[in-house]
Design goal:
alpha/beta, 6-stranded mixed sheet, 3-stranded parallel sheet, 39% helix
């Protein structure tokens, strides 16, 4: 048995630092002078998902970035649209938003167009990149993200399983992937998409 993005003292694991998935965007927003953040995410379906939200909120507070709204919606484009629509109706809108998934951020972009909010001029956005990289790069506006390398993590799980079957691993082993930030137009980059 090899667990994917779960922690265990009994089984081998392949993980990513979920707290950092939230903490890193908070650092980036704070470094860009933001003060009033919001989060649009789905209800946690496993413990580590909540670490992303708490990592963002706690890190933000330590850097002067206050999270005034946490909006829970369905993890879909429709959920992102609904969550962003709620925030767009507020008298005091956030100046940055952290999204729990690419799908939610994509749906939110439609709401921003409807409410005439320009990204990144009026509000900057970073998502947890857990979808198709092409969608992030070719969205209008291209979507900055902290990437979960799902395929690489799955490949590592398979490699560990094969090593266990061959007897090369006899003890509990854990591999943690680093959190990598991809800066695109929604937060700080002025890039044209690559056309091959």
């Amino acid at each position: 048995i090899v667990l994917y993005n779960r922690h265990s003292h009994k089984f081998c694991t392949v993980t990513i630092d979920d707290y950092q998935l939230g903490s890193k965007p908070a650092h980036i927003f704070a470094s860009r002078g933001h003060k009033n953040a919001a989060i649009i995410t789905s209800k946690p379906v496993f413990t580590n998902m909540q670490l992303r939200t708490s990592g963002f909120i706690k890190t933000g507070l330590s850097l002067g970035l206050k999270t005034t709204n946490v909006v829970y919606q369905h993890n879909s484009m429709g959920g992102g649209f609904e969550g962003a629509s709620m925030l767009c109706k507020l008298a005091e809108k956030p100046d940055c938003i952290f999204f729990g998934s690419d799908a939610m951020a994509m749906g939110a972009m439609r709401a921003f167009v409807r409410y005439v909010i320009k990204i990144p001029q009026d509000m900057e956005c970073i998502s947890v990149g857990n979808g198709d990289r092409d969608q992030e790069e070719f969205a209008i506006t291209s979507l900055s993200n902290v990437q979960i390398p799902m395929e690489d993590m799955a490949e590592k799980c398979l490699q560990l399983l094969l090593k266990i079957l061959d007897g090369d691993i006899n003890e509990t082993y854990s591999c943690e992937f680093p959190v990598i930030y991809h800066q695109l137009e929604s937060c700080g980059a002025n890039l044209e998409p690559k056309i091959e």
